Amino acid sequence: MSNQAHVIKTRIPDPPPAAEQLLSAVRDAVEALKAKDVVEIDVRGKSSVTDFMVVASGTSTRHVKSIADEVVKHAKLLGFMPLGVEGEREAEWVLVDLADVVVHVMLPRVREFYALERLWTVGDQPPEIHPADDTPAG
């Protein structure tokens, strides 16, 4: 028995938006939906998959999904369709792949368990917390 894969039609404008443009759109999206403890991690030189990771928390599964949906909406405003969106059904951890920027929106308990910030910043300065946030992650 086979399961049908969820197919997302990707669209990358030519030329694609710069990583900083995508990062700005993500900032606007997470800020608009009042995501908690937003952290941006520069992984250039550490990962060949992406340039930046953004990790944010939602207060409930509905909030997590709404934040991820808002990120997708803001990317579309740049003419960019995500390469993939994973985890929407359970909405405890939703990943939005925007190529140069990968966004992780998680419930706090899931975020604490996986500790992505620590994984990607071992030996670095602490991750940068977005100025709109009131409290540091962790």
From TrEMBL:
HAMAP family: Iojap_RsfS. NCBIfam families: rsfS_iojap_ybeB. Pfam families: RsfS (PF02410). Keywords: Cytoplasm, Repressor, Translation regulation. It comes from the Bacteria. Its main location: cytoplasm. It is found in: Cytoplasm. Functions as a ribosomal silencing factor. Interacts with ribosomal protein uL14 (rplN), blocking formation of intersubunit bridge B8. Prevents association of the 30S and 50S ribosomal subunits and the formation of functional ribosomes, thus repressing translation. The keyword Cytoplasm applies. Interacts with ribosomal protein uL14 (rplN). This is Ribosomal silencing factor RsfS. The keyword Repressor applies. Belongs to the Iojap/RsfS family. The gene is rsfS.
